[in-house]
Amino acid sequence: MTVKIEDFQNDFSIAWCPGCGNFPILNAVKQALVDLKLRPHEVILVSGIGQAAKLPHYMRCNFFNGLHGRALPVATAIRIANSKAPVIVIGGDGDTYGEGGNHFLHAVRRNINITLITHNNQVFGLTRGQASPTTERGFVTKVQTHGVFLTPLNPLTIALALEAPFVARGFAGDGKHLTALIQEAITFEGFSLVDVLQPCVSYDRVHTFQWYKDRVYELKEGNYEPSDLMAAIQKSREWGDRIPTGIFYRNPERLSFEQHSPVLKDGPLVQRRLDISRVQKVIDSFF
To answer: Which segments within 121-162 are labelled E, that is strand?
Structure first.
């Protein structure tokens, strides 16, 4: 059966601002799924709260929309229950690295086989532009009127320090490259992070599409070796006049959570036959 991008479209009106960087990310996710020949019923998306977390609402597939910052534990449970289905988590920089920061750390540590796509626009877009964990120093908002003085969180460096097996960065202004990154992240066995530089056209007039286009460059294999963890950490700290995108680190040798679990070796839990009598024995043991 041929899969078309129209298969993933639904009739819900999109609430994002015109020109928002979320639109090309939505298109890239759809195109990656089409390229992988995955059908809507075979895909599970999970999100939290925020403008980025609305993305699953605008797709035709299975999805769970949870609490702010709590998408990763829900996705972990879904993946363990159905270890054959691709599970993709969608969130913003505030949702993922702020409220969800603790879950982010432990998802990397567990190496659960899910793909995390973060829309990193350096502001809280849903609540009108407050500073997020990734906002640069000196950036002025309606709340941080004298400029942000906190050190911005670097999600790539954190993920690499925890030896996440797949760490990448995309740019919403380069849909073809972003689609390829998402496609490879989904097929990777283990936790995969795709942090996407996503301009916010309403609350960030500094980091525009043009600002990024003048600075981003692609890490191309041949000139860069993504198997070198120390080199990846060094590249992840490069920011300013030149901003690298692409696959920073890839380590297929690290076993995923599912590969470590003997319970899952016999197949997905959802395909197991439920023996009620065994449950009853546990209940009876309490009396």
So the answer is: 123-124, 130-131
